[in-house]
Specification:
By secondary structure, the protein is of the alpha/beta class. It is built from 8 helices and 6 strands; from the N terminus they run E-H-H-H-H-H-E-H-E-H-E-H-E-E. The protein folds into 2 domains: 6-17 and 94-215, 3-Layer(aba) Sandwich (Rossmann fold); 19-85, Putative phosphatase, domain 2 (DNA polymerase, domain 1, Orthogonal Bundle). The protein has a 6-stranded parallel β-sheet. The chain is globular and about 55 Å long. The relative contact order is 0.18. 1,6-di-O-phosphono-beta-D-glucopyranose is lined by residues 10-13, 22, 45-50, 53, 78, 115-119, 139, 172.
């Protein structure tokens, strides 16, 4: 087994908690369309692309829209979402995330972002984390969503590291499955009951030290 050389990070739920902003924007959209949207439903959208999220929300609300209308609705939601994330601050980085990124870089490992979001650039800029990533692969560069491994395979390729020498950090089941499908090690962030396939599950990056990555 090759030695670990790179870390690939999901964004929402691992580095920052943008789910709360997604929730507010989707709820406002659902309410405008005449139905409600719960936090439980929002949970099911973690790691899911914007287009697919809207399809699910419309089906839960029992509403049908044409493709052109869906494009307009997704755009409307995104404008509200961007308005909120434009005000994000470095203090919103999840506990231990910045320190862990600095520690893995200090240990000589490469880092990449592997996110479904098309807004990852803005989030990394607002939180001051951009310089800590050697490569960024996100919703703007991928054509297949998690659980397809494309986002992580592209990250490994951008770093010039073989997949087996990469560790992925993921909070969503689809993301853990994507990493496994790509032949990578995975640290799950969340509950071991949900993220069963992960090699190790922790509550947050604050619980981890780079040395632990060599024993996965
Ligand atoms: P956007 P991740 C995902 O981020 C979110 O978890 C998911 O809720 C969102 O729909 C998706 O990004 C797309 O985001 O609308 O900004 O393109 O967990 O893959 O970092
Ligand atoms: Mg996530």
């Amino acid at each position: 087994m090759p030695e670990i050389k790179a870390c690939l990070f999901d964004l929402d739920g691992v580095i920052v908690d943008t789910a709360v902003y997604h929730y507010r924007a989707w709820k406002r959209l659902a309410n405008e369309l005449g139905f409600d949207f719960t936090e439980e439903e929002n949970e099911k959208l973690k790691g899911i692309s914007r287009v697919r999220s809207l399809e699910l929300i419309l089906s839960w609300g029992g509403v049908q829209k044409s493709e052109a209308e869906q494009e307009e609705l997704a755009g409307r939601k995104n404008r509200w979402y961007v308005e909120m994330i434009s005000r994000m601050k470095p203090e919103e980085v999840l506990p231990g995330a910045k320190e862990f990124l600095e520690a893995v870089k200090g240990a000589g490992l490469k880092t990449a972002l592997g996110s479904a979001s098309k807004n990852s650039g803005l989030i990394l800029e607002r939180t001051g984390l951009k310089p800590l990533f050697d490569a960024i692969v996100d919703g703007n560069t991928v054509t297949a969503s998690k659980p397809d491994p494309q986002v992580f395979l592209k990250g490994a390729e951008a770093l010039g590291v073989e997949p087996a020498a990469c560790v992925v950090f993921e909070d969503a089941l689809a993301g853990v499955e994507a990493a496994k499908a790509g032949g990578m090690k995975v640290v799950g962030i969340g509950s071991p009951r949900v993220l069963k396939e992960a090699d190790l599950v922790v509550r947050g990056l604050y619980e981890l030290r780079p040395e632990q990555l060599y024993d996965l």
